[in-house]
Amino acid sequence: MSDTVLLKRNGPVAEVRLNRPDKHNAVDLSVFEGLAQIGEELRADTGLRAVILTGEGENFCSGIDTSLFAGGLSPKDINARILDFPEGEVANAFQKPAYVWQEIDVPVIAALQGATYGAGTQIALGADFRLAAPDTRMSVMEIKWGIIPDMSITRTLPRLVRADIAKELIFTGRVVEAIEAAHIGLITRIVDDPKQAAFDMADLICGKNPDAIRRGKRLLNDSWTAPASESLKLEAQFQTELLGSTNQMEAIFANLQKRAPNFK
Fold first, then answer.
1. 9 and 103 inside one domain
2. 139 in a domain, yes or no?
3. DSSP codes joined into one string, the chain
4. What is the pLDDT of residues 104-126, one digit of tens each?
5. Contact 108, 101 (CB under 8 A)
6. Within this chain, do residues 147 and 235 fall inside the same structural domain, yes or no?
7. Can you give the pLDDT at residue 225?
8. Domain containing residue 233
9. Which residues in the chain land under pLDDT 70?
10. From CA 91, how far away is CA 176, in angstroms rounded?
11. Which of 147, 157, 194, 248 is most buried (most C-beta within 10 Å)?
């Protein structure tokens, strides 16, 4: 695996770090492939409780590495990858690095700082939470290159902002500062130290019933636009799976005995 995307385990928490600081963590093919591969590894990790996405250096991710448009891949090669949906996958090779974080059952927290443009914005939108430094700047920048955003943004942006705001961001590519990004829903909250805040949130999540956390994420993801007949049944199904289970009983006993829970 390339060293442009790094994986570090901190007990049940995984940190996935974009590691091209000299290029402002711009996304080239190695980053696309590294994020997708690591995401799949974590998806299969039953001991995982939370994932944190970070970027090395002063910027989370400045967007697509322009070498992709300057001879790195031909238009024919790019189109072939765009239209290739592997067996059993809902996302292509360019969508997977952003969408895989929604396929992982545990919460994914993006710690953002500096430029978070284009592909960087779309990767961040794939996380469940976005904790951003005051200097964070976001942009759906693909219109600059005469294209539309296509890294699973149709599954992420509409769940966060109004349709008119989404269209404005996509049609103009304008840069949104952290305060406005929080106001319109692109980021969860502004913090002085996003990485530390992300680990603090992960620690809090790790102290909760992991069975409930996993089902809670699936419940919201699967029912967000589902009809009531489906979403309410899903609530009932997941709740009956939890009630009386080992970890649910441990949550009860830990609260009654005023101690930290010991989940399995």
1. yes
2. yes
3. --TTEEEEEETTEEEEEE--GGGTT-B-HHHHHHHHHHHHHHHT-TT--EEEEEESSS-SB--B-GGGTTTTS-HHHHHHHHT---TT-SS-TTTHHHHHHHHSSS-EEEEE-SEEETHHHHHHHTSSEEEE-TT-EEE-GGGGGT----SSHHHHGGGTS-HHHHHHHHHH---EEHHHHHHHTSSSEE-S-HHHHHHHHHHHHHTS-HHHHHHHHHHHHHHTTS-HHHHHHHHHHHHHHHTT-HHHHHHHHHHHTTS-----
4. 999 999 999 999 999 999 999 99
5. yes
6. no
7. 85
8. 208-256
9. 1, 69-72
10. 27
11. 194
Angle between helices 210-223 and 228-242 (to 10 degrees): 170
Say how many domains are in the chain: 2
What lies within 8 Å, CB to CB, of 4 at 6+ separation is: 18, 19, 20, 28, 30, 31, 34
Residue 192: the pLDDT is 98
